[in-house]
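Q: What changes when (R)-mevalonate is included in the input?
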Amino acid sequence: MITCSAPGKIYLFGEHAVVYGQSAICCAIDIRTRVQAERCDSIVIESVLGRTGIDYDIHPYVSKAIEKMQDHADIEGVKIRIDSNLPVGSGLGSSAAVTVAAIQALNHLFNCNLQLEEIATIGHGIEKEVQGNASPTDTYVSTMGGVVMIPQRRKLQALECTIVIGNTGRFSSTRELVASVARLKIEFPDIIDPILTNIGTMSLIAEEYVSRKEYATLGKLMNVNHGLLDAIGVGSAELSALVYAARSNGALAAKITGAGGGGCMVALSDEPEAQRIAKAISDSGAEVIITRNTHEGVRLETQK
Ligand code: MEV
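A: The predicted holo structure follows.
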């Protein structure tokens, strides 16, 4: 039996804009999804959502992962068990983490010898098929860990500050939110295109502040990015309330992370302020997670 795990992520910059080829900076976080895989007579997928075979409604990402891995191995039967500490549909990259962890578990179980770049590429293909349109960001950072600039696929300096996440608990459909930005872009190209370009430019400028660990300056740009996400229609009153609660309690930065709509916001903070920010977010009605950047992407946990 093989167990692999992969991390979730937060965006420092660039969600939505990255779908149109703009640059984004994404950071793997120390919260993981585990996938166990063992040989079996038939195909079985188990999670909190239930026990299925190949099922594109209940377990779309793992079903697709098994389907794609048929190109690399003769998979007649496999039992997959998913356990995740990442809330689903919250913008923390739960779908990328389960996809990448499943591919790596199958890779080990069936001795396919796939390298990390190939795993990220297969994962991206699966996200595109399930979501309609997807950038390589979530699957790449979940595979590689660390802080990465996409589309350049460049690893940046690790982020050495505390990450405080506020989860509205409201399910956010990446597919629908990506489609809503696409509609706005078609309706008002002269307005929306420059906003997306500015978000990409922000990522390029911010790289230097990540390298120099100048988190207060980085934070100013992240706050601007929040405003631009609001402008393209992926904000909500709830997310903004959490963002302002975090900022007025000492956050260096606070913005939406991921697709938006519902889901999560993220704040960066120096360690001493983290608890105060967490309490402010919690008092505003959200679930709080305090975490850090992890350099580890997908990994083999156990092999029996
Ligand atoms: C979702 O985590 C991030 C989006 O930019 C979509 C994508 O990059 O595929 C909204």
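Observations recorded in class: Residues 158-291 form a domain with the Alpha-Beta Plaits fold (CATH 3.30.70.890).
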